[in-house]
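Input/output pair, single chain:
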Amino acid sequence: MKGLVGKRKLLRIFISLDDKFKGKPLWEYILRMVKEEGLAGATVFKAAAGIGAHSELRTFTVWRLAQDLPVVIEIIDSEEKIKPFLEKLDQVIEEGLVVLEDVEVISYRHRKGE
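Output:
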C-alpha cells in the first residue's frame, strides 16, 4: 500500500488497561473504531509501568490478579482521516492523554495476496 508513504500524522493514545467503554476494554473499542473508520491500522502496546494523570505509579506485580497497566495505542494515517477520528475518540475517552505529531512514512508493506 504505497498510498500511506509520505507525510502523515501519528496519533498516540495513552489510557489504562482497565479503562472500559460500553462494558468492553477501551483499547479494544478504539481498535474497532479504527477499523470502522477505515484508518490504515493501529497498534496497542501494554506497558510494564507508568505514572498517569494522578501521579500514581502503575506497575506489573506478579502477586496481583488484576493489572491496571498503561496502554498506548498508535495510529498512523493522513491528517484528513485522523482529524474526524479525533472528534469521535473524544467521546469515548474519560481519562487519558492523546497526542498528535507529524511523521514521515518511509515504507508500508504487506504480504502479497493478503
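The mean pLDDT is 86. Residues 2-105 form a domain with the Alpha-Beta Plaits fold (CATH 3.30.70.120).
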